[in-house]
Amino acid sequence: MPSKVAIVAGTRPEIIKTSPLIKELESRGADYFLIYTGQHYNYEMEKVFFEQLSLPTPRYNLGIRSSAPFLQGEHTGRMLIDIEKIILDEKPGIVLTQGDTNSTLAGSLTTRKLATTAPFTNINVMLGHVEAGLRSYDRTMPEEANRIIADHLSDFLFAPTQRAADNMLKEGIHRSRISVTGNTIVDALNDAVKTSSRNEILDKLGLDRGYVLATFHRQENADVREKFSNVMGAFGRVHNKFGKPVVYPVHPRSRKLMERFDIVPPEGVVLIDPIGFMEFLKLEQEASLILTDSGGVQEESCVLRVPCVTLRENTERPETIDVGANILAGTDPDKIVECADIMMERKRNWENPFGDGKSSKKIVDIILR
């Protein structure tokens, strides 16, 4: 049993997906701590998630940001320095990273490099990657590089599906390092749905159920004027075709890009500020359709049985397409409207491919053994 468990996280999806692990470790009285890098430095996208998920304050909140989104080396490098100091001081037996962000990359690189210094530091630390094996096979995505590196450095790989496990086996990763555990998002959603009810977010926005929910923020999408403009136009066309408002919680960076690109939302597109997890979950549950370029939202919509149109040419969650919960549209307006029409008619009877909601228990069982 490791003397201490460290968890590295830095974004909204990582907070949500590590929350069941944190609660499982706490329920067993395990010695653990959380390093929160603070990739989202906005209150609504940070503290509110800890509060709504009833999580303790992170022991370390680094608040690391880069000077510009394209300065990936600066962003990751600053994390490497701070995380290394913490691991040297805390001496955990295992470090868990989650997903595919710069926080994942920094936590993985730091841990693996420190593991090679055991003769000098007397630190014997292992590395575990939660949500391992996802592949989009699109090397233009920074997340693809992050997840591949994390997988190949890790001692323990917790794959959400057999397909993810097979991806790693094809790359020569030994099966002894891989465990198919399901995805902790199912645990988190199951827990949240128990306490979820119609809350003030729908009343505040003046919404009745059946609207279209949209998210659009990925660097390779929102940073391109033509793509952003095309997608915003498609949102307007979806509203006109189905007579439903398109509700778009706008990431702060995306809002700045809209201003820079002079993009004006069409009639029927409702821009709102970022909201907490419980509010967003309620918006997902009550939507008739979700339009997104987010990997996490693809999973959430699949588990919640809300049809999804993905505004990308590829996905690292192909299981959502296999079961009929999702369809790829890219950023062409005609294709987006066509796919929205298909998914509006889709029956919500698909099977959840991401496990039975006991992923966190399985993962903690393995790392505490």
Regions with little confidence, pLDDT below 50 for 5+ residues: none
CATH superfamily of the largest domain: Glycogen Phosphorylase B
Mean pLDDT: 93
Count of beta strands: 13
Tell me about the largest β-sheet: 7 strands, parallel
Distance between the termini: 5 Å
| Domain module tally | 2
Instruction: Give the helix/strand class.
Output: alpha/beta
CATH class of the largest domain: Alpha Beta
Report the β-strand fraction as a percent range: 5-15%
How is this structure best described in words?
With 369 residues, this protein is α/β, with parallel strands linked by helices. The chain has two domains: 5-183 and 355-368, Glycogen Phosphorylase B (Rossmann fold), CATH 3.40.50.2000; 195-344, Glycogen Phosphorylase B (Rossmann fold), CATH 3.40.50.2000. It is built from 17 helices and 13 strands. The chain has helices at 12-27, 47-52, 72-90, 102-115, 118-121, 142-153, 162-170, 184-195, 200-205, 219-222, 225-242, 252-261, 277-286, 295-304, 318-322, 333-344, 359-368; strands at residues 5-9, 32-36, 60-61, 94-98, 126-130, 156-159, 178-180, 212-214, 246-249, 269-272, 289-292, 308-310, 326-328. It has a seven-stranded parallel β-sheet, with helices on both faces. It has a six-stranded parallel β-sheet with strand order 10-9-8-11-12-13, with helices on both faces. Strand 9 (246-249), helix 12 (252-261) and strand 10 form a beta-alpha-beta unit. Helix 4 (102-115) runs parallel beside helix 6 (142-153). It is globular and about 65 Å long. The termini are close together. The model has no long low-confidence stretch (mean pLDDT 93).
